[in-house]
Write a structure and sequence with these properties.
alpha/beta, eight-stranded mixed β-sheet, 8 strands
Amino acid sequence: MSEDEKKELLASGHRMCAGCGEGTAMRTILNEAGPNSIATVATGCLEVTTTAFPQTAWEIPLIHAAFENAASVAAGIESALKQMDKKGETNILSFAGDGGTFDIGFQALSGMFERKHNVTHICLDNEAYMNTGIQRCSSTPYGASTTTSPKGKYSIGEDRPKKPIARIASAHDIPYAATACIGYINDLKKKVNKALEADGPAFLHVFAPCPTGWRHGSSDTIELAKLAVETGVFVLWEAEDGNICDLNVTYKPKERKPVEEYLKKQRRFAHLTEEHIEKIQKEVDEKCEEYGF
């Protein structure tokens, strides 16, 4: 292996919070993609913590896009490389948080899928707009307290279910879509490589806990990421060629843990009553039954 291949592509010295799940995700993804990659990144936690002028933690070429158009900018890069007869020589990656994927950036992302650009879009999901003040997002799960869906006398917090963004992405008939989690690094690595090998657009939904927004200890990030999967709150699966009706669950817990074990470790859920937890458990049970476990 050459020295370039050994080099960490997310440099140390960035400004991510202690225990930030995005750091673990990014280090893994970039090292799998390798130095022959070009990335775009939407405004968000990842951008502000890794590109504070005049410094950067990125060891590959990077364009900072607006909140809403990381996928469009990546599509433009891919089109330019085609015109230069360099198609397939470079991995084109676009990164955005859940806000820049589920909400603000969805129109650009859908268009990139529809035009079949050979771009891998990675959503780093910490379930709220953490960079701008922990506001709710369509990625925010039912029951979570945020600054714009706060718990209170007449409010449970977020009262809507989490949007199934990876299913929506796969429904565009793209070659590859998958969910992944920083608690299961080998699964994440495999899916990164499958996404990069796909002949056309690919989508990775990467679950990455946030100590600041979730109100958990910085040393609990990986444990929480694993608990999300072990309880069935977050399911690991992949779908090829838009075949969402026959997706492959890549990890099934031998015995699912109660969702309470996951919820009780986060102060964003501290206000939930036993009745609320039972409701969430029932919804998780129904979802897992749909996935076949």
